[in-house]
Structures are given as C-alpha cells and as structure tokens.
Predict the 3D structure of the following.
Amino acid sequence: MPGPQPVAKPEVMATPRDQAQPLIKAGSSHITDRLFELAMLACGVCVLALVGLIVYELIAKSSLSWHAFGWKFFFRSEWDPVNEQFGAWPFVYGTLVSSLVALILAVPLSIGVAVFITEMCPRGLKGILAFTTELLAAIPSVIYGLWAIFVLVPLLRQYLEPFLAQYFGWTGLFEGTPYGVGMLAAGMILAIMVVPIISSITREVMTAVPQQQREAVLALGATRWEMIRTGVLRNARAGILGAIILGLGRALGETMAVTMVIGNRPEIARSLFAPGYTMASVIANEFSEATGDTYLSALVEIGLALFLVTIIVNILAQVLVWSVTRGMPARGHA
Amino acid sequence: MPDNVKSALAPVSFRRRSVNTLATVAAAGSVVLVLLPLIAIFAYLVYRGIGSLNWAFLTQTPKPVGEAGGGMANAIGGTALILLIASSMGVPIGIGAGIYLAEYGRNRFGDLIRFTADVLNGVPSIVVGIVAYGIVVIAQGHFSALAGGVALAIMMIPTITRATEEMLLLVPQAIREAAYGLGVSRWRTTLSITLRTATSGVITGVMLAFARVAGETAPLLFTAFGNQYWNWKMNQPTAALSLQVFTYAISPFDEWHRQAWAGALILIVLIVVSVTAVRIAAGRGMLKGMS
C-alpha cells in the first residue's frame, strides 16, 4: 500500500546514541554505572573548578593593589617597591612591543613555511618538514633562552645591531649602544618560538580549503602562485588571522626566554636596542622575593591582566580558526 | 582558430612567470630561515652539552661557586619527583575528564567543559605558577615539590583531556554496541572496551602533555623553588633541571654556563625522545587523527 503508514516510531531507533540505552539497562548494575558516570563527571568538573580557582586566586590576591591604584595601575610608570608605588605601564609596553616585533618577523616566515609545505614541496619532504617545525614547538622555553644568551645576543651585538644602526638608525628604532640584550633580542627569540604555532595552524586552515578551488583557479590559466594567492590564501584568510592571533597569545604569555634576554629594566625607550621588561618576566623575577603585601598584590594583578588578555586573544583566535575549518570532517569531532 | 582562444593559449607572460618563481623562492627561503635556528640550537646544544657532560655531572650535587666539578644529579632527581607528582594527579583527572566528554558529554554542559579546557590550555605558565603558589605554598608555609607538581598537573590536564576525548570518539560506536549487546555494563564497556581500544592514542596524549611540562620553568620558579641538595620529600623545596639551567645560564660563572648546557642537553633528550616515540607510534597508523 503506497503512502505514509502510521507506524509508531520504535523508541530504540531514535538516534544512534539512544540506541544503546535500552541495551545497557538490560543486564547491568545501575548503581555502579551511575557511580562511574559521577566519578568521570567529577573529573570534568575539576577542569571547570581549576579555571574558577585561577580566576578566584588572581582576583582575591590582587585586590589590595586594585584598591590602592585602580585602573591607573596599568598606566603609571613608577615601579618603586621601597615606597610601595606600583605602576605596570613599562611592563605592558615591553610585552606589547616585544610581541609586536615577534609577529612582524614571524608572520611572513610562517605563512611562507605553510605555503611551501602544503602547496609546493614534494610529497616525501612534507612529513619531514612538518615534523621538524613541530619539533621547534617542543623545545622548552628555557633552552631557547640559553641559546639566545650565548649565541643570538653576541651575534646581535657584533653584527646585526651595528649594521641596523648604520643603515636604519634614522628611523629612531635602531639607535643607542648595541648591548645585544634588549627588546630586539626578545622579539627575535619570540619570533622563533611562535613560528611553529602560526605555521601549523595556517597549514591546517589551508588544507581545509576545498581542492576544487585550486583546480578551478588553475583551469583558468593561473600560475601556481596566482592559484595560491587567489584560490587558497584568500579563502583561508580568517583562519590565518586566527593563527596569527594564537601566536600573539603565546608571545604575550611567554616568560623564560624573554626574561633571559630582554635586559629586565622597567624603562620605556623608542629604540629596540634598549633593554625592557615584560609583564611575565617581572613576575618571574620578583615574585619569590616580593616583600610586603602590596608588592605581591601588584605582581598578582599583572598576572591577572596577563591571564585576561591571553584568554580573550585565544578565544578570538579559536573562533576565527573554526570559521574556516568548521566544515572539515578531518578533526573527528562529532 | 578564433582570436580569443588564441590569446588564452598564449604562453604565460614573463612577468607572471617571474612572480611565480619569486614566490616559490620566497616560500622555500622562509623554510630555510626557520630551520636555521632549529639546526643552530640543536648543533650548539649537542656541541656544548656533550663537552660538558661527564659522570660527575650525573652523580653529584652542585659545588659552591668557584669550585670546579659538581653536577646536577639532585636536579635530575627533582625533575623526576615533580613530574611523578604532576602525572599522578594530572593523568587520572585528565583521562577521566576526557572519558566524561566523549561518553557522557555530548550536551551543553560538555561543551562548557570542552571550552574551559581550551581556556585552561591557553593560560600562561607563569600565571599557573602564581595560582599554585596561592593554593599550596601559602597553605604549607614554604616552597615544595608538591606545589611544583600541582602547577605542572594543572598544565597537563587540558592537553590530556582533549586528546583522550578525541581518541575515544574515534572508537567505532559498533564496538560499544557489541559490548552492550553481550550484556556488559556501561562502565565496564568504557574501561575495558572503549578505553582499551584507544589506549595507544591516549598514551600519545599523555606523552605530549608530559613533554610539554617536562621543560617548564616559569611555574616552578616560586613553587618548587630549587635546592642545592638532594631532596625526596614532597613538602620540601626541590631542585629541577629546568630551574637549574635557568639559574646557571644567567649566572656570571663560566663553570656554571658549561653545566647549564649539559643540563639543557639532558632535558632536550628527555623531551625529543618522548615526542619522537609518540610520532613513530602515530605513524604506525594506530593513532591517526592526532595532529
């Protein structure tokens, strides 16, 4: 008989997930199942609780400084533990400038690496290159710092900084004594550290661009580069922006390598040769010897600001990356 | 042949060809520029590290400034202790949360936990250090290995959680149903069937988390704090390899610089071995889906 039949939908078939439900109930102990679920739930809630704990700890421990200085804390330049006068502006400035230098150096390189690995390089080389760039991400920050102190800084002092001062000194960005240690060194080591992050995520979003896009552009007679530029990069740009912002998030919170080469002086100078200080490094250097509640509280407040900024930056980046990779089945999330 | 077809078949102009070549060279060039520091770091690390590595370094505690010799044996032990504490807390909680997300968390609340885990993953390590200081060091009244372990555990959990979830979701639903069909209870299925099937993938996740925290320094600065002597007690300040490398690197003494390189070499060997082992296991095809 044609036409729809008024058959009652069997409950078991509702959705694949519910399918299991009646089957389990048949021969299992409800209590142990329930207990197990509760135990796993407790672990899940742990994750929530941890973030809650971080927020609570940071807010509670920084309240003293917050009440003493208010919003102005982030725009004042004095950092005088003896007289209990605290302002975080030099650290905010140092964090922003060193991260900016890092991004300026790292972004073109990372996109170049991603383009080469996904679109240009021979198949056999692909895996090796991808693995090697990922290896860069596995090196601990303290080892980057060690290498920077003994290799990068002397190179900067002897060759790169005098060169920059001679030819680009007129910009005002490269003047003063070339110590080696300073904003430029910090920015460069940060750049080396964020390249793997930016390039691996750029690779991921470029892979998400449908193959037909490439074929269509090539069929119109484009050269390979024209295909990459119009067919791939343009389609993936939101995701690439997300990758860059994710790199920024890493650069903002990076501590050890920066602390070891930035010079650790709370000064604001136009020249990139000058030593500086970042939010993360001031916490690293002064936290364990901070005497006085206001001092400690001021350091925690810097930590709170760092936390909030990196969280916002990371969420923004995630949203941008999702906007490109969303339709992709590859990452296997149901 | 019509004119428009002829012009379409005309060879690509010189300008477009040279831009194409230029772009290819630039991309290849950036790969070289990125690999250069990597090679330089490893070469220098091996060169300086091997030269400074000796039996005393592996078996002795640090000597006072000015005396030659001594080693980082206590720091190696300390790192092992801190990582043991961190893993014993971070691994079960991380895997448990992963199981929850994969098996029970296909809902709003699961999404919230998933999102929170990603947030936790992005928290700067120095901030984790502040929190561990707040909840352990202040409560105990002094720096301790436990505080360092707690800080590293907090950093391990989100990585393990997300990796476990991802791996469990790769296990085909049919396998679970087969177990249910045989009358196996749900918790038993999850532990002995689903988790068992995904074991190698979960181990990958754990090793990645382990490698990530093994070299962490910032969260240990004011939790484990460092120690010049042996310590095996959970509630005492403890040396750690990464901390020792940091302290020695910024010191003005050549002898200490030498030891910093040796310490860094040991640290990187520890990490590269675990990452490569994971990579090889992943390449076997058992753990496809992890990136």
User: Anything to note?
Assistant: Chain B is about 75% helix and 0% strand.
